[in-house]
Amino acid sequence: MLNHVSQLPFSQACENNKGPILVELQRIFQHNQQVLEIGSGTGQHSVHFAANLPQLTWQASDQNSYLTHLNARIELVGTHNLLPAFGLDVMLDWPVKMISAQLDGVFSANTLHIMSKSMVEAFFQGVGNALLPKAQLVIYGPFNYQGQYSSESNASFDEWLKQNNPQSGIRDIEWITALAAQQSFTLINDVEMPANNRLLHFGRHK
């Protein structure tokens, strides 16, 4: 059993971006009750955001293969408002019993470019089914605009992604906003973030 945080997987990118992301989440989620994080990974975001958003309940999730280390971090350094992570594969039936009836927010960081296009479509379908009316959806990561990379580093990153998995890749924001619109989400804000990333804030209008 892991009994110290230094034994857990660590992402330097999460450590670098958690501060700037939190600034935006404190504004966006100030009136929310419960937020589901999809693709919690190492759990560094989960523990940081839950600790700094004490007014809401933070629900971590990821594919089953990540849960052991994710829940170890939550147990070691989590707060009272951070729930144990549950398994969620966007392509399978979502665990409805684990999703609160009070769920009014979803956050996901650096996931859509890892997923295949069919997984991205399933992500939005699942979010649409799970979230309450007037909910908030926040997605962090790199995006293309009108099919163009926003930086040379993103172009290189996209090439690396596709070498590892031809079905992955940086997504066009126009496609993402169209998928969101199918679930009654409107893009409220597109925030420039460090390292050529964006933070997309969608609001549900039903």
UniProtKB/TrEMBL annotation:
Pfam families: DUF938 (PF06080). GO terms for biological process: methylation. Keywords: Methyltransferase, Transferase. One of its GO terms (molecular function) is methyltransferase activity. Transmembrane segments: none annotated. This is Class I SAM-dependent methyltransferase. It comes from Shewanella electrodiphila.
